[in-house]
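[agent] plan:
  1. take the single chain provided in the ticket
  2. run structure prediction with default settings
  3. attach structure tokens to the ticket
  4. add a short note for the reviewer (M.T.)
[agent] executing step 1
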Amino acid sequence: MAFAADDQAKDIVTKAENNIKGHTSQTDMTIEIIRPTWKRSLSLKGWSKGEDYSMSVVTAPAKDAGTVFLKRLKEIWNWVPSIERVVKLPPSMMAQSWMGTDFTNDDLVKASSRIDDYTHKILGDTVIEGRKCWKIEMIPLPQAAVVWGKLIMFIDQKDYLELRLEFYDEDFKLVNILQCSDVKIMGGRTIPAKMEMIPAGKKGQETVIIYNSAIFDKPIEDSFFTTDNMKKVR
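[agent] step 2 finished; step 3 output follows
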């Protein structure tokens, strides 16, 4: 199947997003920032509930520990322990680097929705990591407050895994490539346990996220995702 209607493309993206997140998720991750002359690592815990709520806390290294990011509906908040302040992030900051990585603030908190903020179109089929994938083009809706001019997503046709995502700017110039691999069962779901964000044209630079553990569909109350709770989570 090389081509399909827009509704089917949106359905495929929805299934892939739901597969990696579940109704709720709790994750433990290691993030490695790699540059030509140095490396550094972060440890991160994360919680999410549907499209509307997510929280992440840096647990290491010590100088960054306790830094928290919260998405609640359409609002993004940051708790900075060193200044003991909760800061609301404006939309203009969504395109900026998250904690010095190659991910943007938007990538990490998913302020924009790949389901609701884009049109979806299947361009064809390809093979990645030995898996047959749909190649889906995503163009932002005119009213959507999104970072990217276009996304190209490659989704495995068997398990609905996002195996590759290409990020393009407003001029449709390639900016970043997200490669997903090390497919394994975690928390009862088949997911890629490794994600590599690679900036286009920047040799020796990337950010790698490794999922150490994941729990899906364990109930989390909406009240967990509050600015008050940002100061308490560990």
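[agent] step 4 note for reviewer: The domain at 6-230 is CATH 2.50.20.10 (outer membrane lipoprotein receptor (LolB), chain A).
[agent] ticket updated
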